[in-house]
């Protein structure tokens, strides 16, 4: 294997920002310390771990629900912006259509090392908190149908978002946990007590915290309060549209080390403003903000993980370590792959994001290889 080193940069590790060469041996990080082999000087730059996006629907004009070519386009778009691993998220659709879409996405995921699994956002969601999920395709919890989804996923389904307050919802949580799949509470009108029951049953993730759920209230702290007490991970769309910076600070305060930055990005990400489709709906993107044509509901984001991290430091006030962990280590730990991904540590994959001092991406490494022709 070829050994080479990044030298002169400030290296963001889970424990601090350190000086030292990042020595890369083939596809992995060998150590942080004395340089070895060919040297690439990155003085004045930051070296961060590759980002891991738990919740992304597309990018570059492509939507993941539209098949393998669209998945490849969307992943390449986000990879250029520092996302080296992700889940492929699929929106609610008629059950037969979802089965086909899951099968296609699962086959793609099985052959693509950048995909850590699938995220099914629906169809067992609250009609009152549906966001842009088609109400005609939402269903009551159905164990047999869920099992068919999991079978179509051929072991690739990693997360399923559901509303636990629906009849049979808690049973679906238990079914997912028994199958080794993460149950996420989201698009839900659950109050505190039901949410606590869901987390006690094994749900361990909140889908885009504060969005698509009953608001936090001082007499019913709802899903957010239950997640705080249960110690689960909370996703945050840090684009300044879905969440105010102070709300992200609140999440950091009530769930230190348990906030996962996500994009919830739709096809317009890194593409032009204009008209798009998200599931069954027409979406207008103006100024990078995506909303339903019909009623103005926020329709996903046009965020990249790089911008989410940049905003976390510059607008929210997180440290570099906190922001990097929220974009990398927290999701890796949730998915049980933190021994391979999510941090700049020896033995981990050489998934690295090189940025300038202002966190603008300069170059990206995945498995020790540059993802495009950019070099720092």
Keywords:
eight-stranded parallel beta sheet; alpha/beta; 376 residues; six-stranded mixed beta sheet; Urease, subunit C, domain 1; 28% helix; single chain; TIM Barrel; metal-binding; 23 strands; 9 helices; 2 domains
Q: What is the gist of this entry?
A:
Belongs to the metallo-dependent hydrolases superfamily. NagA family. The chain is α/β, with parallel strands linked by helices. The chain has 2 domains: 3-48 and 343-370, Urease, subunit C, domain 1, CATH 2.30.40.10; 51-335, Alpha-Beta Barrel (TIM Barrel).
Order of adjacent strands in the largest pleated sheet: 8-11-12-13-14-15-16-17
Tell me which CATH architecture of the largest domain applies here.
Alpha-Beta Barrel
Distance from first to last alpha carbon: 22 Å
Give the beta-strand count: 23
The general outline is globular
Spans of at least 5 consecutive residues with low confidence: none
Kindly give the count of domains.
2
Q: Output the structural class.
A: alpha/beta
Give the count of helical stretches: 9
**What is the CATH top level name of the largest domain?**
Alpha Beta
Q: Which superfamily, in CATH terms, is the homologous superfamily of the largest domain? A: Metal-dependent hydrolases
Strand content: 25-35%
| Whole-number mean pLDDT | 96
Rg from alpha-carbon coordinates: 20 Å
> Can you give the helix content as a percent range?
25-40%
Biggest beta-sheet profile: 8 strands, parallel
The CATH topology of the largest domain is what?
A: TIM Barrel
InterPro entries: Amidohydro-rel, GlcNAc_6-P_deAcase, Metal-dep_hydrolase_composite, Metal_Hydrolase
Active site: 264
Family: Belongs to the metallo-dependent hydrolases superfamily. NagA family.
Binding site for Zn(2+): 121, 187, 208
